[in-house]
Amino acid sequence: MRNKSLMLAVAVAVVAGILGLGCPKSSAPSTPVIASAPESTWVNATTPVRVFCTAPNNKDVRYITDLGQPDGKIDTSDAMASGDTTYIYPKWTQTGTFSFKVAAYLDEDPTKISDYSATKSIRVLPNSPPQGLIIWVPPMSAKNVETEFRASAVDPENDSIEFYFDFGDGTKKWFDDQRVASGETVTVYHKYTDTDTFWVKIKARDWKRSECEPESSQIIIGLAGRVLWAFVGPTEDSAPPVASPVIVDTLIYTYCEDGYIYSVRMGSGRKDASANSPRSTDPDDYSYQGHPAYCQSTGHIIVGSDDAFLYALNAVNLNRAWSWSPTDTANPGWGTPAINGDKIYIASDADTLYYLQDAVSSCSRLGAYALPSPVSGAPIIDRSGYVLVALENGLLYKLEPNLQSVVWVDTIRYNIALTSPVIDEAGVIYVGDDSGYVTAINENGTIKWSTMVDPAGISGMAVGVTRLYVGTGFGKLIALNLTDGQVTWTNTTCTNSVVGTPALAANGYLYFMDDDDNLYCISQTDGAWVWTAQCYLQVGGRSRNLRRPGKLEVAENPSITIAPNGNIIVIGENYMYCVLGYTDGTLHTGAPWPKWQKDLYNSGKK
Predict the structure, then answer these.
(1) How far apart are CA 49 and CA 387, in angstroms?
(2) pLDDT, tens only, 410-426
(3) What keywords is this UniProt entry annotated with (predicted)?
(4) Which of 20, 152, 592, 603 could lock 185 by a disulfide, CB 3.0 to 4.6 Å apart?
């Protein structure tokens, strides 16, 4: 009760001091002098008025401007040093001619108030401030990374506009050097030096200094999760990438639906080289298929096309080293290759698995095996060189390296499509299916265990040291024990469908993506959520597509990868994104199968 009474007494003293300015206090600031002021201004415009006063011990003061309006409105300045001539910026909210005056009080003690200055006359002209303020603040960014902000507004008098940004960390300013025409967008950048949640406030004013009301939005600053760049083909006709990326040194390889395969610079996201099918002068006539892989022994990117040819492209410049098409089937399309040294295993749309040799300048056919159903995902190669293929009819094949004979075949789930298989350190094979089961198969073909995970189906799996990490159609990421298939934890942060295979980082984090361009980072240990990067929102939805489809087309089922610098490469609906990761979070090479097709080259080789 005593504290409340004291606060009430102080408040009464302040009000009494402001209203009774004819009785200055002995230690109050001196009566201010209005050194200069404009003869006219505009309504709702911050108006520069030059003032001066002194205070005991040069203490800070605040200036009170009685605007002279009929509504009795008073404008109060920020704290300023006394003894210096300075500018205050009162704002008149009514039009007309007014006599205004200025007083000052001590910032540390508002009851110490000066007399009012002599009055000055000012004419306030009509003007409308900018309207329709639209701001764009990314939902998250990372510490010490340049972060982009945008704003636009329309001025009723078509005046030029400048914007004020308060970034919430103590940095705030009018970007008067970036004045734009009415309706145009201004883009500014700011770097946060701390991790925290900040409220960003943005407002606009015209050249007459009439301000609109501010808009605010929240941004979360962490150590990672910021989209560093977003790649789409370089022309207006280019389409977004659709293939799981291959990384070779500092270049990323993927292809788009515009008929081109691209190499993209890891640091900048800019195109380095491109190639399309030589079978037509129009790139739209043919498209690449499956997902590319890198043959390290020859330096070639291996990728198929629906022009019936399989291509080897030099990784340095994407020049064609050779092309090959089988003669035993008519115009097949291609799946995804698996690479073992200079040997290539790839299935055609004619349900034939081919065994080829990349002979640097040509391709040699070494063998083939006719399968009873299309291959799901891609073939993989176990530690002994045997080839494993999962089929859309629910069969899992293990073939000799030369494809001359079948070692064994298992019916995993009758007439239900399987996922690409993965392998652990002991040689145990794991495969999911569209009914939601995950099955573990020993090297000799016997079933080790089978677990129902999610009836919405399995999108992909990665193998850690002791756990299998499974993404599902219901947006779950589930960890299973390798020994018995028991669930150790389930993450339900994602509300969309998981796309592709998760990726395991060396620092204990796991990344996965959904069909709405969101990248999730969670803990491998317990599935705890760490952060979510809303990639499409971070780049502001600046797709060249006339209409953004609702979800990522999952037919290609593209998977993420982790670059050698720890950043995450994501194939989304409209872009290939590079998301800031952790320098200690490179691909977990100590895990038996840390990503789709195991490694950065998408080799599919254990």
Answers:
(1) 82
(2) 999 999 999 999 999 99
(3) Signal
(4) 152
**E-strand stretches of 453-595:** 458-463, 467-472, 477-481, 487-491, 498-504, 509-514, 518-523, 529-534, 561-562, 568-571, 576-579
Per-residue confidence (pLDDT) for residue 539, from 0 to 100: 82
Q: For residue 157, is pLDDT > 60? A: yes
Q: Is 227-579 assigned to CATH 2.130.10.10?
A: yes
User: DSSP E strands: which ranges in 25-111?
Assistant: 33-36, 40-42, 49-52, 61-66, 74-76, 86-88, 96-106
Task: Give this prediction's pTM.
Answer: 0.75
pLDDT of amino acid 557: 82
User: What residue spans define the domains of the chain?
Assistant: 2-125, 131-222, 227-579
d(CA 374, CA 377): 9
Distance CA 346, CA 59 (A): 80
Topology adopted by domain 2-125: Immunoglobulin-like (2.60.40)
Q: How far apart are CA 568 and CA 595, in angstroms?
A: 12
DSSP H or E run through 14: helix 2-19
- Which residues, listed in sequence order, are joined to residue 149 by a DSSP beta bridge? 188
Tokens of 118: 């002599």
Enumerate residues 6+ apart whose C-beta is below 8 A from 254.
Answer: 241, 242, 243, 244, 245, 246, 261, 262, 264, 292, 571, 576
Domain pair 2-125 / 131-222, same fold = yes
Tell which CATH architecture fits domain 131-222.
Sandwich (2.60)
